[in-house]
Amino acid sequence: MSRKRNCWDNTVAESFFKTLKTELIYHNKYQTKQEVALSIFEYIETWYNKNRRHKNLNNLTILECQKLINNNNLKNAA
Questions:
Q1: Helices (DSSP H) in the chain: which residue ranges?
Q2: Cα separations (Å) of 36 from 18, 20, 55?
Q3: Which of 9, 13, 25, 75 could tie 21 with a disulfide, CB 3.0–4.6 Å?
Q4: Cβ atoms within 10 Å, residue 48
Q5: What is the value of pTM for the model shown?
Q6: For residue 33, what are the domain limits?
Q7: Higher-confidence residue: 8 or 40?
């Protein structure tokens, strides 16, 4: 939860959950909790991490950003 006078504390998490709900949850009807869990897992692993571009990551996907970080760490270690 956000602390007093720090309204930006949860912005990234709140943005993710808003996106998850609007792009996935509100468009489907689920019968069981297992269906919901599987749907969320598939959304995160197949779309959100691999294809969706993130404004906070300079319009890169999460995987592209991780590759850049790993490459920079390898260069700095050498």
A1: 11-23, 33-42, 62-77
A2: 16, 12, 27
A3: 25
A4: 19
A5: 0.60
A6: 21-77
A7: 40
